[in-house]
Amino acid sequence: MQTITVHELTERGSTPLIDVREPHEYAAGHVPGAVNIPMSVFGERLAELPDGAINVICELGGRSASIVQALEQRGYDATNVEGGTAEWIAAGYPVDR
Known about the structure:
The protein has helices at about 5-10, 25-30, 60-75, 85-90; strands at about 1-5, 15-20, 35, 55, 80. By secondary structure, the chain is an alpha/beta fold. The longest helix has 12 residues, at about 60-75. It is globular, with a radius of gyration of 12 Å.
């Protein structure tokens, strides 16, 4: 499974970021530019994924890792963001609400 840190994420600004947390978690604070496709409905919304590489994030990295593994099995170029949004916030990066 491909992984990156939150610090590496800042260098991948042109790669779409999918936040797989639930809507209330996303609304409480998310990485600017992240698109919310909750894990609970992810399978139903695969058609919304952009072509090409994508980064996937959650709160700590567990849910996004599960999604990345499933996407890789389907041939997607997906990368998990280790540490998730919690690490992003702890590093002092900006958050949208």
